[in-house]
Specification:
heterodimer; A: about 300 residues; alpha+beta; Cyclophilin; 2 domains; 8-stranded mixed sheet; 7-stranded antiparallel sheet; 22 strands; about 15% helix; B: about 240 residues; Gyrase A, domain 2; 5-stranded antiparallel sheet; 4-stranded mixed sheet; 6 helices; disordered N terminus
Chain lengths: ~300, ~240
């Protein structure tokens, strides 16, 4: 059982839930950009939800299959076709030997996920197959290994979970965050701009971070802080007044003003924004963030 | 919200950093005392982590220790909230008296550096800028015992300090596109070694033949936060020999 990249995409990678326990050595976590779509795709093909998966950007790779497989595509809609026939997202699909999977046109979102029943046989480092900067290449062949019976994910995904995830990812809802250590250093005007005005994603968006365009924000003190750990979702204020949102491949520590952290349930939504999309921010608190996260994760785990 | 919650009489503050991390801040200026404090907090967190595996990362920096945790695994086991849980754990472990507890002593790690000008490409301009000789720069850099405050920027990169005032220089305004692995640099009060070839803006004064980062899972980073480091000068011949061996 294997699949082959017959045409190289722009920046496709293999990702899993990322690397844990090494950030104190400066080693980045990496991992899914939109963990909800990735978990959903895995669950729909009965894989453990945090299994390695193909993360695709547009223009995406084209794949051919060496034998029968069950696959599922979630996240961004890049108009997937098998042998030139449209297939549905968020649904397990059976493919046969020599079938060709292609992605024709970006309709919605930035990251699509392709799960294949089984385990992708790819190198790992420190217990994760996520690497920053290793992209899928033309003619790469990935063997798909069977998974242990005890690992098979057997829970049926309810339709309303699929719907909730879709809503969460693509609804034009504000991006919620919790104020961080430098929040009180914002000028009053900047604080109100951050909470009321629109920001836009720019061409400088990648797996490390999303640079936003919007009102330039200012501090009541110099933008130089003692370096401290930053997390995925950190809202950094750059010296020129722009906002940068740290994403999956972020550095482990940072010395710019840390204005706040986007909550975990809203990270997939910001990850899926296309270049030039607008977004608004709103405040929330830890309790609320924990409840929302638990609610959606409980849909997967019993 | 980012709340200021003092912890007993200790100069420690516990705050949420977003929804999946907690930052413990040390309220003393950077000093040998604060360095000891960071080490002690890391020791306590590590022992809590042994029985509470929802703690995923313990990341020390200059005056902070950040814990990253898994929300779902926390609530599967605990009734309270993570911040309260951590404070309570600290409180009960504090019976052993945190203030008098001694942080683990580390040996000083000695690092050979070849300050030859083919490696120390910024030595000459630094000497001019600071109005001292190259020998004085090397003397100062090898004299000081540096503390490793944290790792970051790239795997294995250790931020060390404090560099003596007479050799402090700001980083280059525009980073060089390529700095070679092993390059030893200065940026203000900090000194550090590039573990791999990378773009970089630090003032480069020499190069070490020692491997600072090895991706082998049992090796990884040569330094960890809390280590003490002293540099010593080697000539080009010794450098080449050490590199070859």
């Amino acid at each position: 059982m294997s699949l082959k990249i017959i045409k190289k995409g722009m920046a496709d990678t293999i990702q899993d839930k990322g690397r844990t326990g090494f950030q104190h050595l400066g080693i980045q976590a990496n991992g899914f950009m939109d963990y909800l779509s990735a978990q959903l795709a895995n669950a729909l093909v009965n894989n453990p939800i945090d299994y390695p998966i193909f993360e695709l950007c547009f223009p995406a790779s084209s794949f051919s299959f060496s034998s029968d497989h069950t696959i599922c595509i979630t996240g961004a809609n890049f108009s997937p076709v098998i042998n030139e026939k449209s297939i549905e997202l968020n649904k397990p699909i059976d493919v046969s030997k020599n079938d060709v999977l292609q992605f024709l046109k970006p309709i919605e979102g930035s990251f699509a996920y392709l799960a294949i029943q089984g385990k992708i046989n790819a190198p790992d480092w420190l217990a994760s197959q996520s690497f920053n900067a290793t992209t899928l290449q033309q003619d790469n062949v990935f063997e798909i290994l069977p998974i242990l019976e005890s690992d098979i994910y057997t829970h049926t995904i309810p339709f309303n979970l699929i719907k909730a995830i879709q809503n969460n990812i693509f609804a034009p809802a504000p991006i919620r965050f919790i104020p961080g250590p430098a929040w009180n250093d914002l000028t009053e005007e900047s604080l109100s701009q951050l909470l009321t005005q629109a920001f836009h994603t720019t061409l400088q968006t990648n797996r490390m971070g999303y640079l936003l365009k919007g009102p330039l924000l200012g501090l009541t003190r110099p933008n130089q802080y003692l370096s401290a750990a930053v997390t995925r979702g950190t809202l950094q204020l750059l010296p020129n007044g722009s906002l940068m949102v740290l994403m999956a491949d972020h550095q482990t520590i940072g010395g710019y003003a840390n204005l706040g952290q986007i909550i975990l349930v809203d990270l997939p939504r910001i990850a899926q924004l296309k270049n030039g999309s607008s977004l608004h921010f709103s405040l929330t608190n830890v309790n609320n963030a924990h409840q929302l996260y638990q609610q959606i994760q409980k849909g997967f785990i019993h | 919200m980012h709340s200021n919650s003092n912890f007993q009489d200790l100069p420690l503050q516990f705050n949420y950093l977003g929804d999946h991390a907690i930052v413990i801040s040390i309220n003393t200026p950077i000093s040998s005392e604060s360095i000891q404090m960071v080490k002690k907090v890391v020791t306590l967190c590590t022992s809590i982590q042994k029985t509470h595996q929802w703690i995923k990362e313990i990341i020390p920096a200059y005056q902070t220790i950040t814990l990253v945790y898994n929300i779902h695994s926390f609530y599967q086991l605990e009734q309270t909230d993570p911040l309260l849980f951590l404070k309570n754990s600290f409180q009960s472990m504090m019976k052993e008296n945190f203030l008098t507890m001694k942080a683990a002593e580390n040996e000083i790690i000695k690092i050979p550096v070849c300050y030859d000008e083919t490696f120390g490409i910024d030595l000459a301009s630094m000497a001019t800028l600071k109005n001292i000789t190259k020998e004085e720069i090397i003397e100062s850099h090898t004299h000081e015992i540096y503390n490793v405050f944290c790792l970051g920027f790239m795997p294995g990169f250790a931020y060390m300090g404090t560099v003596n005032e007479k050799i402090q220089v700001a980083r280059h305004l525009a980073p060089r596109p390529k700095v070679f692995a092993g390059s030893v640099g200065i940026a203000g009060v900090q000194t550090g070694i590039y573990p791999t070839n990378s773009p970089g803006g630090w003032q480069i004064i020499g190069r070490t033949p020692i491997k600072i980062f090895d991706p082998h899972p049992e090796k990884l980073a040569l330094f960890k936060a809390g280590d003490q480091v002293q540099f010593y000068s080697i000539n080009r011949g010794v450098y080449d020999q050490m590199l070859a061996s």
